[in-house]
Specification:
10 helices, alpha/beta
Length: about 250
């Protein structure tokens, strides 16, 4: 389901941060208390803030209970920010999902990671070449889009956590996706109401690929959501976010 209107206006895109982590994600800083996150979003003039704590395969974190808790706390708050209690869910292989449908339907926003190959519970392709991993992602996303689970794909395609690749291999991995493959899979997502994330850390690390993906997505007419993958309060709405995107995409 598309939760934001389609736009390619960078200044408008960065007013909605659709990827942040509270202290319910073990990787976040202690300052990422829900109420403080909302307060920071309001101070920075955000229109929308999505909380997307991790739901990883094999994790013993009760994401559903945390979701219910955050929604109750949100009811007690007075804020101008549209707050979505979602999760960063995991499609960790072809047809493999870490969430069940009870959790999936309880969320305001269902963001799916498809590339956490650094986790021991993540399915690995038989072909361990850069092309083998690229095909694995494309196949995994194709199967996901046969369901109605996903609202957005977060940090799509990026190899920034694929630590088993050398720096050279990370760029080779991105280059092995053809324009047609990217256009086709992005169009498949669009047809089932799934947006694609403009992931600020990816823009910083792989600006050329991010620009390429943005231009292909614009041509295909897909929805983009913006996310900083915030684990600190300062990352809720970085002052230079719009300038970083404009510089990368010009």
């Amino acid at each position: 389901m598309f939760l934001l209107e389609k736009t390619y206006d960078i200044d408008e895109i960065v007013r909605n941060n659709m990827h942040t982590h509270s202290i319910n994600s073990l990787c976040s800083k202690p300052e990422m208390i829900f109420e403080e996150m909302v307060k920071k979003a309001e101070e920075r003039g955000l229109h929308t803030l999505a909380i997307t704590d991790h739901s990883d395969p094999g994790s013993d974190i009760d994401v559903l209970s945390n979701t219910i808790d955050l929604k109750k706390r949100l009811e007690a708050m007075d804020t101008k920010v549209r707050v979505l209690v979602g999760a960063e869910l995991s499609v960790y292989g072809n047809g493999l999902y870490a969430d069940d449908l009870t959790l999936n339907r309880a969320l305001d926003y269902r963001a799916y990671s498809q590339n956490h190959y650094h986790l021991s519970t993540w399915e690995q392709p038989e072909d361990k070449s850069v092309r083998g991993y690229a095909e694995h992602i494309l196949n995994t996303l194709g199967t996901l889009f046969e369901t109605d689970r996903a609202d957005c794909i977060v940090h799509p395609f990026t190899p920034y956590k694929m630590k088993f690749f050398s720096e050279k291999e990370k760029y080779e991995f991105l280059d092995c996706f053809t324009d047609n493959e990217l256009g086709d899979i992005m169009t498949k997502g669009e047809k089932v109401g799934c947006a694609w994330e403009i992931h600020l850390p990816t823009v910083n690390q792989f600006p050329e690929f991010s620009k390429r993906m943005f231009n292909i997505g614009k041509e295909a007419g897909v929805h983009f959501n913006f996310g900083t993958d915030a684990h600190t309060l300062s990352a809720i709405s970085p002052e230079d976010a719009a300038e970083i995107l404009k510089r990368a995409y010009r």
